[in-house]
């Protein structure tokens, strides 16, 4: 077990952080507001690849079993703030574990440095708002998308989402500019805590930007049968 796994095993997710993250995620994706259920929240996403997601701030065997008994059709996802090793024994074989992820947080302060000056001269940065969601895009000179991200504001929390850099534009600092710009936008509205869920690939980047590990985040899904 590596040091990151050992540290995460000792961390219990704060339900308030996870509640804020789920509500921000739903706002960011224009999904319906989360619905409280025993032990967690349900989001009726309604998309072809994801009908519904259940999010739990801790591993609750009874709550998990209730979801397993309720769901039988593809497109259902369960998200639990626990290690994959602790979740897997409770899942039937037809539920598929996804790539391990991590909940991360950061403290934000107003007046942070404007990162837009760090965009290479061959790119253009765009910032826009949709209600309580900020969007940052970095475009090439001919208008192609090089990197993007968005952050939903939920009270004192800012939920970073959809952070993507096109493969041919990686290792140029664009993701850093996107994150710093989102953080600055959030802090300017009074947000004091950033939250995101990082993949294994993204964990290193966010750690380098000062984000801290909050908890493990394990996903399981009912996927369509292979044909």
UniProtKB/TrEMBL annotation:
Which first-to-last residue range defines the signal peptide?
A: none
Domain (N-acetyltransferase) ranges = 92-227
Against InterPro entries, the record matches this protein to: Acyl_CoA_acyltransferase, GNAT_dom
A Pfam family that the UniProt record links to this protein: Acetyltransf_1
Which CDD domains does this UniProt record tie to the protein?
NAT_SF
- Protein name, per record: GNAT family N-acetyltransferase
* Organism the protein comes from: Microvirga arsenatis
